[in-house]
Write a structure and sequence with these properties.
Helices cover 21% and strands 34% of the residues. The protein is of the alpha+beta class. It has a 6-stranded antiparallel barrel. The protein has a 5-stranded mixed sheet with strand order 8-9-7-1-10. A 5-stranded antiparallel sheet has the order 3-4-5-2-6.
């Protein structure tokens, strides 16, 4: 696959500064941040006491700040984070309009991203395939896009990026995970949850699920025909889940944990197979 890129500057963006910025996120999110080094990227969720997600964000460390971005629909999430500040030495600024975000994927995308003057490169699981976000000042976005084109990268549509994501089984906030979802259900616990760090809101629930070894439902990839989002998934006329994202031939669905890979299910009147 060629290096593809798409503009995702509409994502909400926050900048955390101050001497306790990493400690602050460490205390309230599912991932470890106290040891994060400049250039490193981490993904994390904020949870309720019962372990369901309040929101999901991706964080990049720089020399003097932590930059975070999240889905545009999470309009209440920045304020939810600010409620935890109290006397902490951290400042939180909304930089949505100050910074642009470009998503790249494909073989060699790291080299292409690094060729953009002044860009900050952040690895991501957003597509379920090797990919990275590039941060640039909003005023430099067009020049960055020109640099990508000059490096041989090809601009693509959000529909193509979504197709890559769904075919690779990667969850997206607002589609495959929301305020009713446990991280383990969406399958993000392998890279967005730290199970041996100190206490944070929802940690006890995470530990119980982790050591119990399962959840009641899970996100699965379906292969088959064309599926409508929110369509019912059934086995032998018994409802076992719901389609959450779809592209022609593939869909993601939240289904009962007991449905094994290889199982033939029905989405409406269309047969599909649960991928392995």
């Amino acid at each position: 696959m060629d290096v593809l890129y798409g503009d995702r500057s509409d994502r909400l963006k926050l900048r955390f500064t101050g001497p306790q910025r990493a400690w602050f996120l460490h205390q309230i999110l599912t991932q470890e941040f106290e040891d994060i080094a400049p250039g490193e990227a981490r993904e994390a969720a904020m949870l309720t006491a019962h372990g369901r997600m309040v929101g999901y964000l991706e964080v990049l460390a720089t020399e003097d700040a932590l930059l975070a971005h999240m889905e545009p629909s999470l309009t209440d999430f920045p304020e939810a984070i600010r409620r935890y500040v109290f006397a902490t030495q951290v400042e939180i600024d909304d930089v949505t309009d100050e910074m642009a975000l470009i998503l790249l994927t494909g073989a060699g995308h790291e080299d292409v991203a690094a060729s953009i003057p002044g860009a900050l490169v952040q690895s991501t699981h957003a597509l379920g395939a090797p990919a990275a976000y590039v941060w640039v000042p909003a005023g430099d976005k067009e020049a960055a896009l020109d640099s990508l084109a000059g490096a041989g990268a090809r601009r693509t549509t959000e529909e193509v990026l979504e197709s890559i994501r769904i075919r690779n089984g990667a969850p997206r906030w607002g589609k495959d995970m929301d305020e009713k979802t446990f991280p383990q259900e969406a399958g993000i616990d392998g890279y967005a949850v730290h199970f041996t760090k100190g206490c944070y809101v929802g940690q006890e629930a995470m530990a119980k699920i982790h050591f119990r070894g399962k959840v009641n439902r899970r996100l699965a990839l379906l292969e088959g025909g064309h599926f409508e989002e929110r369509a019912e998934v059934s086995v032998d006329d018994v409802r076992v889940g719901t389609v959450t994202s779809s592209v022609p031939g593939f869909a993601l669905a939240m289904i009962k944990y007991t449905i094994e890979p290889g199982t033939v299910v029905k989405v409406g009147d269309v047969e599909a197979k649960v991928a392995g």
